[in-house]
């Protein structure tokens, strides 16, 4: 084949591949965001997997490259969050512990069912099943960590399923009546303070959950618009979850039932948390006298992203030195 023929062939192949990419993105533009999430996961040294547990398909990230019988750390994300929120911490724990980081049913890549219950109570039972069916390994104690909404879920799981949880960590956890702030007042007024429907509300969302300007994420074009459209489609679902965990009968259940948690525990907050006010730390501490308490300065609601080194140190302390009640 002549050089001109080779060039034409290469150009044709490139054109076909480009058309295939455009078709792939046209079918589901959110794949742009998922591709970046995959990049973050690979950089953190994690593998993606999926499992059918009862009636929901779960997608999770994991790393099992740890010494024999090393503790298993399971990390549960918060409201509007996903498994990706835990990747900075996972990167620092990888190699020492077995790591399992799911998208909760209803969120991220995991399955959502129309009209399903995704409140604290329903999700805590699902987390216990995830531990039992996917994460648990004989001889490896389970350390269950939860952030924000995930903290409330984890508190219930540790209280109601103690055989599945050997140690528990609550990070900026929902589930108690903390000191009034704008976020809490808006939730009680029936609003969704995390709602995103345009560029301005996206920036407000980021500014609410992050305090340290050096850690605030930037979402480049076209991912920003694609993310906004996804959040607009999720608006009704987000409100339905807030009806359960922020305004309904379940909203303070995690804090009440935390008194039943006898396992070694960790409470970690950021002083500048504008979502779950830092007063929540002491409210949980009153129920968990055995808990290690860590209050960080200069960070907001996303402690696990803004201060991953300090969070990793606290988790290691929980595993190495935590005491039962």
Strand order of the largest sheet: 1-2-4-3-5-6-7-8
Based on secondary structure, the structural category is alpha/beta
Q: What's the tally of helices?
A: 13
Instruction: Calculate the terminal CA-CA distance, rounded to whole Å.
Output: 78 Å
Mean pLDDT figure? 92
What Rg, in angstroms, do the CA atoms define?
21 Å
- Give the tally of β-strands: 8
Shape estimate: globular
Oligomer: single chain
Q: Order of helices and strands, N to C?
A: HHEEEHEHEHEHHHHHEHEHH
Strand residue content = 5-15%
Stretches with pLDDT under 50, minimum 5 residues: 6-27
Largest sheet: 8 strands, mixed
Approximately how much helix is present in the residues? 40-55%
Overview of the molecule:
It is a single chain. With 325 residues, the chain is α/β, with parallel strands linked by helices. 45% of the residues lie in helices and 14% in strands. The protein has an eight-stranded mixed β-sheet with strand order 1-2-4-3-5-6-7-8, sandwiched between helices. Helix 5 (149-160) links the parallel strand 5 and strand 6 (167-171). Helix 3 (87-93) packs across helix 13 (308-321) and helix 4 (120-135) packs across helix 5 (149-160).
